[in-house]
Amino acid sequence: MPLERYQYLSNVWRDGLFANKVIFCTGGAGSICSAQVRAMVHLGANACIVGRNVEKTENMAKDIATARKGAKVIGIGAVDVRKPELLQAAADRCAKELGSIDFVIAGAAGNFLAPMDQISPNAMKSVIDIDVLGSYNTVKATLPYLVESAAKHRTDGHTPPPNGTGGRIIFVSATLHYSGTPLQSHVSVAKAGVDAMAMSVAIEQGPKGITSNIIAPGPIADTEGVARLSKQDHREKSSKGIPSGRYGTVKEIADATVYLFSDAGNYVNGETLVVDGGQWHTAGFANGFAYPDFLISGDVVTGVAGGKKSKL
Ligand code: COA
Q: What domain of life does the UniProt record list for this protein's source (predicted)?
């Protein structure tokens, strides 16, 4: 569904900011990542989004393309970030068809609510594989293109880059592991790994002109993440406990993305930009499962999206 600009991008950014640039995004059909890509496309970039679901990914690519007349957005489905060869093929196709990869968002993630004693080894592995190895596979597949773009678009902080910026990656992480979050051990462990990877990329690839940063969203309204991680009837109540008094919007994550990828974010490298209205400082996302009573009860999580399916 075509969206009004203000639904995914504030009015402070200049049209054409990312003209002749290409963004590659995993998990690009999701609510947060699609807004990030839509914002970049609105500001001039062409894009390639990859995801597991073919129809969802292809439809989202068409939808994102409505953000700017003449925009090219490729949607490549059936790409599981756990399969390095599929990601490599997608990155190569993106660069071949669109001409380069200047920006990358490693956004694909796996998530559900469950205490550690109810998670199977395969469940733990699935989330770590998607988040940590998926992010690694994304870096590996796109790095040569990012290095090429970084070399062309080096910034010195004194003169405006004549053809804009390039060679930048953002990892979409979370704040769960800062203070510890019950029912989220698997994701906390995985996102801590993603954060460490983002910093390693900054340290190792920074000298080649790459910037590598993390965006850690808090609870963002109307997203799959919030549907998976909290009970509907608890959301209004919990939003009052956020210092900013409400859930965030996908636009607010997209704006952070544009900042880090633009000439405004040149000297930010290896950093985490938390966009959560101050929520994590209040120690944990209140998701409607009383601590520690729920854990002691041994009950299974119900009433959220992504619940475990019965094998019977
Ligand atoms: N509670 C406990 N275990 C769960 C679970 C839940 N809610 N959902 C899945 N699992 C377990 C499965 O039972 C399986 O373990 P098993 O083989 O020991 O039974 C394991 O996780 C893998 O699940 P499966 O559905 O086979 O794998 P998948 O790779 O297709 O799915 C997940 C990966 C589990 C992360 C799934 O939640 C997913 O596809 N997420 C993608 C979307 C998403 O989470 N987006 C994040 C938005 S914030």
A: Eukaryota
